[in-house]
Amino acid sequence: MDNAPNAPSEVHIMSNISESKKEKAQSAINKKAAMGEDIDLSQFTRSAEEHPYRKDPSELNAATKSKMLEAGLMLDDPSQRTGTFIQMDNTPIHSSVKEEGVEVMPVSQAMKKHDWLADYYWKAVAVDTDKYTASVELGQNDGYFIRTLPGVKTNYPVQACLYLSKAKFAQNVHNIIIAEENSELHIITGCTTSLGNEPGMHMGVSEFYIKKGAKVTFTMIHSWNPEFAVRPRTAAIIEEDGLFLSNYVLMKPVNTIQMNPIARCNGKNATARFNSILVARPDSNIDVGSRVYLNAPGARTEIISRAITMGGNIVARGYIEGNAPGVKGHLECRGLILTEKGTIHAIPELKGNLAGIDLYHEAAVGKIAEEEVEYLMARGMTREQATATIVRGFLRVDIEGLPSMLNDELQRAVKTSENDFM
Amino acid sequence: MLEIKNLSVAVEGKKILHNVNLTIGTGETHVLLGPNGSGKTTLLMTIMGFPKYQVTDGNILFKGEDITKMPMDERARLGIGISFQRPPVVRGVKTKDMVMASMKDKSTPELVATLANKTDLTEFLERDINYGFSGGEIKRSEMMQLLAQKPDLALLDEPESGVDLENIALIGKLINELLEKDSPMHSRNSMGLIITHTGHILEYVNARNGYIMLDGTISCMGDPHEILTEIKACGYGQCAKCAFRSAHHV
Ligand SMILES: Nc1ncnc2c1ncn2[C@@H]1O[C@H](COP(=O)(O)OP(=O)(O)OP(=O)(O)O)[C@@H](O)[C@H]1O
Ligand SMILES: [Mg+2]
Questions:
Q1: Can you tell me which atom of ligand 1 is nearest the CA of B39?
Q2: Which residues are within 8 A (CB) of B222 and not within 5 positions of it... i.e. 6 or more apart?
Q3: CB-based contact B72 A378, cutoff 8 Å
């Protein structure tokens, strides 16, 4: 099968490529990230015990399943899922798929199956971006491969879980997602841990390839613990008429998370949408942005973020660059400060490189307006109810283009977490 | 019954209302007139219990209970409701949510739909409250929320201002429903206090008691239609001197 954009015909070219990638990674192994505090990787181990393969993931113990459910994984009744992938520490413990034309498997297995797959490695994300991408290249422990064949439209989302059970362990995964031409793929990814208060680290590279006319929705729910350091590195390449819709929910405590995913709208009328819901508990440091490059005529984007601090710090970034005529972009950052402590730093950026582009942004950071609380109280709500209603409303982002079932899932994830802070 | 006795109110340290006295019997509808900035909204907000309005003197009694210090949400639950002159936009909170919150446990999707239909706001239920609403739509939405709440005392701040003629008739009808105007006075539970500048609403809603608020004081009371005629003829400037004042001074 010749699917890669530039499929190499000879094996030795491939090994040369992979060698040069290793070299590049090696050169970046101490390279600090452009943003976020520097994490000392030497405090984490890479090795973890193997976990047994689970043919039926509903056999996992109840505590594990409930953690996974918080992160969007339905294991007891997967009837509304097209496929499932679970990786525990270093071991993919389950992968399955129910629909024709959809592939879900560990990326190590996919590499054996598709000789062209190596060409998709590090095409969207640069291997030498920083020490975290370098670490994933040099110490990779699998990850998932999800692909829809041309024209295949999944009815239900594929669910994937990256799970950490070992303390002081750093997970290095590399995920590759490919939506072939005119296909439609929905993914729910939950990243979570069974560790209550022990440190851990997650590094995950995710590369999305959205071919002509294809549509991918990607909903990622993070549920870590107050000692976790998290450094995802994500990029998507979107071809003509393709759509990438990414939703990110972080409402549980975390020590530090920094990510700034990129979407490159390279084909005519390619569209990228990012929605982020960020809640910073006390002592959480969150630095999350989205960057979109509108590189072809008619490309469009919308970046929306909602940030709430209950004492932690949030940097909410957004960057749109217009490099082709007739592109449109809208950036909206809204932040709510619920406590005396805590900061929200909204950094919306727009860059236009030619005439005939239309980019704009809105940003607002503040506390809940007293006038709004009182308006609701005048209808009989208590102050607490009024505040909770406004916060809930703040977190309710109506996401254009998201199938209603996925929207329900997203709202469910938001609701589950809301209960612990309201 | 609502009784206001010797009420004085300050907002952010500034004295706005002075020694206001007012009694509304159960089943009655009273009308508050007066020039811009005279303190009409301040009186309504104080009765509702907005924390910004500080009672420096006097008392408010409702259903026989002294509510002067009662928190606003408790007053709402006790049966006081207000339609705002300029309500805020609350992003993310849908109009439907406001209606349901106003109804509390009685709320059902059918009742919400009926109310929306009645106020011609069916398409607005899923919209953020007051976001991008026109002046007239805001007034109808305020009425919808009040009808959902069904307060015993409805405080209506300029319910018809900015509303076209056809919709004034609709607002009038809704107010009559809210104030149970179809039932005989003795069997009504509701009372109303309506602020109006033009008096247009009085063509649809019957009211026999009217007041003029001047510089934070109620300076005149009588039949609202007669007071309005007087104001139209002489203006508020003449109010202080007019014959009405000496005859009906409170
Ligand atoms: N927060 C405040 N700080 C200072 N002054 C205030 C404040 N709120 C209201 N006022 C003043 O109190 C006075 C009475 O205002 P109020 O809104 O009650 O008038 P009103 O009779 O309802 O007028 P209108 O017919 O224009 O609605 C005005 O002079 C107003 O500027
Ligand atoms: Mg007023």
A1: 18
A2: B210, B244, B248
A3: yes
